[in-house]
Design goal:
about 70 residues, mainly alpha, two-stranded parallel sheet, 2 strands, globular
């Protein structure tokens, strides 16, 4: 996760968009990677609409999602 975050930051400085592929078990790391500059997260083997909605909700900020916001 640390390497992917550093690569995302570096890619932004070069005008390159970064998409990160995570295992379902690593889905919680997606928030950190999005905050580090990744422009998208791919998670394979999402099998139900409910599971997909839960992941999207975790990555989006309120009022649409539940991603935490710090002042």
């Amino acid at each position: 996760v640390d390497d992917a975050a550093r690569l995302s930051i570096a890619s932004l400085s070069q005008g390159v968009d970064s998409l990160i592929r995570l295992k379902k078990e690593q889905a919680a790391d997606g928030q950190r990677l999005l905050e580090s500059g990744a422009l998208g997260i791919m998670i394979p083997q999402v099998e139900t609409a409910e599971e997909a909605r839960g992941l999207v909700e975790a990555y989006r900020y309120p009022p649409i999602g539940r991603h935490g916001v710090g002042p």
